[in-house]
Design a protein that fits this description.
Helices cover 24% and strands 25% of the residues. The chain is of the alpha/beta class. Helix 3 runs parallel beside helix 4. The protein binds S-adenosylmethionine.
Length: 292
């Protein structure tokens, strides 16, 4: 099997136009946050953020396969003592473009910086907004199962009568839980909160996310040979993890220094011996550290 990594240098608003319709399985990215990192790669004022992002999300919609998923890592900042609303506004505008806002995952930063603010506590989480083109999309839930752990020994040992029956969903979704079904199992499905430390020593890029973050979503939404895109590639974390997991990937970066750094690190194509159930190298959160 040949694994390709295609890197584009330039503004993703333009570079995305070179990618064919319905060709990508997963878009995983962390764009610059409003007005942050002005000194490194430019900042977009919060008021302009939605208008800046919409032509990009329009292209992303065009190139994502109907069964694909777009995961957007973003967090609104505090301006004049208030949380900005541009992320919420962006969600509403993207829905008008045709996107379904399917889910919101939380990245809990296990090692957020200590600090004291007069009117809030330290910020220890970021959003991972999941968007899709249709309700039925590829999702490989078994790939991210977690050990049952202590839960099986504590909560599951003290089941009430309702726990033993199917507890119909109160929102009428047709789904429910019968907790006793899980008594003898060793693995359970995870929650939508992902607990990962940030990485703090990156000398090459100031906002890299931990490798475990793209790895989790690549496992959940793609299989080997699929294609993953990061239109705001930075230090190439998404592409490097994708390649290690035998996925093709595309990366776009506007800063030449970052682009060159990733290009030097990655071969454009690599032949791998395809083995079903491959044991790809697992992520060690060492390679690169936090930017944003
Ligand atoms: C938050 S960082 C991404 C970091 C990346 N996730 C990593 O792990 O290294 C955002 C990146 O987007 C790049 N960028 C900003 N505007 C861009 C644009 N219009 N097109 C392409 N890249 C852009 C920045 O130079 C920066 O490297």
């Amino acid at each position: 099997m040949e694994i390709r990594t295609d890197l584009y240098f330039g503004d993703c608003k333009e570079e995305l136009k070179k990618i064919p319709d319905d060709s990508v399985d997963l878009i995983f990215t962390s764009p610059p946050y409003a007005d942050q990192r002005k000194n490194t790669y430019g900042g977009i004022p919060p008021k302009e953020y939605v208008n800046w992002f919409l032509p990009i999300s329009e292209q992303l919609y065009r190139i994502l396969k109907p069964t694909g998923t777009f995961v957007l890592n973003i967090k609104e900042r505090v301006v004049n003592g208030e949380r900005s609303t541009y992320v919420l506004e962006l969600i509403l505008e993207m829905k008008k473009q045709g996107w379904l806002w399917t889910e919101e995952y939380i990245w809990h930063k296990k090692n957020s910086y200590p600090g004291k603010w007069p009117n809030r506590f330290r910020d220890a989480w970021e959003r991972l907004l999941q968007f899709n083109k249709q309700k039925k999309f590829n999702m490989y839930q078994e790939e991210v199962m977690v050990p049952m752990g202590d839960w099986a020994k504590t909560r599951l040992k003290r089941l009430s009568e309702t726990d033993k029956k199917r507890d119909e969903s109160k929102v009428g979704s047709g789904f429910g839980k019968n907790i006793s079904n899980w008594l003898e199992r060793e693995m359970a499905y995870p929650t939508n909160v992902i607990h990962l430390a940030t990485e703090c020593n990156n000398k090459n890029h100031s906002a890299a996310f931990p490798e475990g973050l793209p790895e989790w979503f690549i496992k959940l939404f793609t299989k080997e040979g699929d294609t993953v895109l990061d239109p705001f590639m930075g230090s190439g974390t998404t592409n490097i993890v994708a390649k290690r997991m035998y996925r093709n990937s595309i990366g776009i970066e506007i800063v030449k220094e970052y682009f060159d750094m990733v290009k030097t690190e990655m071969q454009p194509t690599e032949l791998i011996l395809f083995e079903p159930n491959s044991n790809y190298e697992k992520t060690e959160p060492k390679r690169r550290k936090t930017i944003r």
